[in-house]
Amino acid sequence: MPVLPLTAVFDELPDPRRETANKLHGLTDILAIATCAVIGGAESWEAIAEYGRTKADFFRRFLPLKNGIPSPDTFERVFAKLAPGAFSRAFGRWMAGACEATGLVPIAVDGKCARGAKRNSRVRAGHAGENLAMVRRAAVALLSRAPGKGSIPTKRLKAGWDDDYLLQVLQGIPTLVVR
């Protein structure tokens, strides 16, 4: 099975979940699906799970998916439990390679998250919102350098519909080439 280097970055993260018989999905599977889904335009846990179900055959090319695609609640719970520091460092290493390879300069996009503003919403429970916001910022950066004409929303739609284009988005960064 070919390995998408993005999965190698997530393999290093400690899994915040307890070892139980109910732990059905690999952490790397969850994080890789969520990252690709956000690049493809998903903006909620339900949309991430739907994207995963729609693209299950695509993801099986890179991920074991022993128990299929996780539910929206699983995505949310995992992102909420991930330590933002560990996730940030792992995701940051991946994005640093992306920025270096494409000449992007990383900047803070979401000032409210950067200064720690609190909001009373379900998405902000635990660290889910902070971690997902990081993935969203990375998706915008990747799509801004993606091949083809069109706006970022247009490229997001195309990445959501077209597996080959999604791979082009990821392969546009030398450290992310699918082997």
Count of distinct strands: 0
Shape: globular
Strand content: under 5%
Please tell me the total number of domains. 1
- The low-confidence runs, each spanning 5 or more residues with pLDDT under 50, are 107-111, 119-125, 174-179
Kindly name the structural category: mainly alpha
Give the helix proportion (percent range).
55-70%
Major sheet: none
Count the helices. How many?
Answer: 10
Distance between the termini: 9 Å
How large is the radius of gyration?
Answer: 15 Å
Order of helices and strands: HHHHHHHHHH
Q: What average pLDDT do the residues reach?
A: 77
How would you describe this structure to a colleague?
With 179 residues, the chain is mainly α. It has one domain. Helix content is 58%, strand content 0%. The chain has ten helices and no strands. Helix 2 packs across helix 3 (45-54) and helix 3 (45-54) packs across helix 5 (72-81).
